[in-house]
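User: Structure tokens for both sequences below?

Assistant:
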Amino acid sequence: MASAGTNATVAARTAAVRLTDTATHWQLMWWKFRRHKMALLGGGILALMVFFSLFAEFFAPYTPQERTAKYTQGAPMGFHFIDAEGSIHLRPFVYARVTKRDKVTLRLVPTVDTTTRWPIKFFVRSDDYKWMWGLIESDIHFFGFEERKEFLHLLGTDQLGRDIFSRILYATRTSLSIGAIGVLLSFVLGIVLGGIAGYFGGMVDNLIMRLIEFIRSVPTLPLWLALAAALPREWTALQVYISITAILALIGWTHLARRVRGKLLSLREEEFVLAARLSGCSHARIVARHMLPSFMSYMIVDLTISFPYIIMAETALSFLGLGMREPIVSWGVLLYSAQNIRSMILMPWLLIPGLVVIIAVIAFNFLGDGMRDAADPYSQ
């Protein structure tokens, strides 16, 4: 019996070795990436963020600019399954809110009315919206109320009575799209300019490297502030969105360009590059079809690691009032309302978007660490 078990173990190991020998580089990367638990967790969190942001109109009970006049500066209204009497309810509910005048400040303050319950309904019909880039029109929301006298603000409201939860969903779409577009533009610039410098060398290489050194020598934050402050104040929200994305991309391409240049410098004298030249391939084909694919995995890692920097840059600019502006909502725009001490003391829930930023950045770092390890599948 022991001999049979040993033989089975040896056969299993032999089969695993054979499978590894015949696997492609991308298969080896995926197998190693799957063993990185934190990277899988980070990827799952980011996938959920992307999913909820893409369908924000469906999951958000309100639009970003919709106001609840009866519940301005309202605290989070967490839902319940057990009422004040100890009874259990299968359908979640929130307690009603009534406004009472504060005896000291004479302000109308929302208070909890435990005698009245508002059951939360799912797949309710409310405001019309268009999603999937305006291709689908619907009025069904995942949860909410059909009666306007009832309202639900899971994460509270801001100074104007706008729902924080709904605004976070829409802001996630904006911030992640800025990161994706900015990283894509940086990726293209880095590959093109770094490829030209590394492949041709000489004077072209010197000019591009001096440009990279000049950009990297300027402090990043003052450069962002100067470029963002130069944007005309009368520009529309869409123009500002495009401009901020372009600014972040024009500054963030230098790291990838230097890496691409170094790789191409080490590859341009290899035998497979010489064979491509002798066969009559053009310079563009040699770089695009023969040299770049040989270290594409490392470029993908750089692409993933660049996401947090772009997102943090947009958040910082918008937080300082130089980036996105209303009516566009982003993580930085949401945090802009929490700049002063008074807001942080009276409405600490305005800092919840900051927690979302932290979670997103950590998730990107976990994903980047996993992809960095997987990029070299033969290392232990």
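Moving on to the next sequence.
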Amino acid sequence: MNTRKIDLILYYLVLELFVLNLSYYLVISYELINHSTEDFQYRSFIQENFAYLITYILISKKNLYLRDGFYNRAWRITYRTAAYALVSIIVNVLIVEKPFLLREDYTVFLLLFYGLCLIAYYMVYKYVRSSRSKGRYVKSTLIVGSDDTAKSLAAILSNNKILGYNFLGYVSKEDESFTLGKIEELEELIEKLKIQVFFVTFSVFKEQPHLKKMLQLSIKKGIRIKLVPQKEALFNFKTENSVGGITVIDPFDFPMDKIRNRIQKRVADVLFSSAVILLILSWLLPILALLIVIDSRGPVFFVQKRTGVSNKTFNCLKLRTMKQNKASEEKQAENEDLRITKIGKFLRKYNLDELPQFICVLFGQMSVVGPRPHMLFHTDLYSKEILHYKSRHFIKPGITGWAQVNGFRGETEQLWKMEKRVEYDMDYIENWSLIKDIKIVFATLFSEKSFQNAR
């Protein structure tokens, strides 16, 4: 079973156990208040959780991606609740002589659990569906190939918007009337249509030259590629998933592809950025803003469009450290740069100009740790010179990063400096862990290397 399915199964289990225990607590609380029950029955509490775990293991997991509408999800909840009731009764009879719940209370408990499960899943379903319909978390995609597998996949992507793909068309080896173009035009189409992921069917990638070209294009453009094999074809890739029942293979396996890792990182980002905003920015920002205004004319904040995750553009916030100038969108800060103000030198030396980016982290545009976001001009420039440059955008950009704490920050007047930065960024993407993020944060604060080349 692929890692994405395992993650979803575990999250659904956590959700259902939470609802189970909430229902249990509500019923017991009512008993304690109205019927003077002596105490909370921990043995029975553990017993009911044990019964549900058995049920969850025994009942097959289908419709994990909520792709078939809420009706099927409701049916699965009904079926599992009925199975749980049966298992619970058996466990009660085998383990205890007298179940603590009276018969009518147990019925209320089951009905409450069933009802809350329906409500919880309906809310999840509505949220995901609403987000997809508004274009949030939706990836523009195309399919390379035009065989029956490609057409089946296209129908699934088009008819199940909840999967999060905006299917734009086919690219084929031949010049066919219903396709967007030929394989030779793929790179141009990716740029034109702003493709974020593309699927390649077996009829195309079985030919090694085509497969090699597709993989190189994926790396060069910083977009994800998914291989769609035939059932009889056997492969040995690390990451295998399913889209609407069709198996897809990801030739690149990154820690951030796993849902649990993305959740861990997002939770850490929200907690850390909230703490910084409340405990530091709330009082320090007004002081720094006043100093900036006194030191030079112009706005307090410097807002610049930069490249974010999946090559999307976002507004990056910084405290203004330079006099207003026309070259700020293309020219990096240099040693003894005359554009930098007096207070700006101080802010840059201690990385204080980056503090407003915690607001970007809170709103999900950035992460505390990740590859540093670059100006759009530099994205265009270096993506032509460095193969893996755009692959940095597989994950959210960060306020600090693995390259920065290893001394590769500041001006990149020589190509090798950017190449080293990209090398460290890719190492971070391929070997991410929450512990590594914590180490990078501490290194940012206390390591001498992280303050090198500050301009």
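User: Anything stand out in the second?

Assistant: The chain has three domains: 3-133, 139-253, 259-451.
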